[in-house]
Design brief:
The protein is about 25% helix and about 15% strand. It is α/β, with parallel strands linked by helices. It starts with 10 loop residues before the first strand and ends in a 7-residue tail after the last strand. β3 and β4 form a beta hairpin. Strands 5-2-1-6 form a four-stranded parallel β-sheet, with helices on one face. It contains five helices and six strands, in the order βαβαββαααββ.
Amino acid sequence: MPNAQSVEKEWVVVDATDQVLGRLCAKVAKLLRGKYKACYTPFVECGDNVIIINADKVKLTGAKWTDREYLSYTGYPGGQRVSTPEVLMKKSFNKHIKPGMHPLFIHVMKGMLPKNRIGRRIIENMHVYNGPTHPHEAQNPKVIDINKLK
């Protein structure tokens, strides 16, 4: 059985240009979990580190940019907040947000990962950038075509 020390993690670059958000994130969730590897174990973090570039060119079908609503809660009475994908996409261009942390992609990916401590560790392996460049060139990431994956 593999453990955290014996698993070989790779760096992978995925281009989000003209991809549908939910379908792209479903495949990225499988990459983060490690389900495409032969050594997959549910309780071991054996997935790859995924870099998503061109996140600003992702698509949503229909009128979901304005009609879909994401809920968040501040923890205080009356603290329920509603935001749309359009608002979360505009937040990603804010200079005060940490590079690699895209609010829209994080919200979508959290729904596709396990809701436990391994899911919280796995989400940190995803880095999302709006432009075609990223600061992870030193890790020698390999570019994959997300459309070839099932």
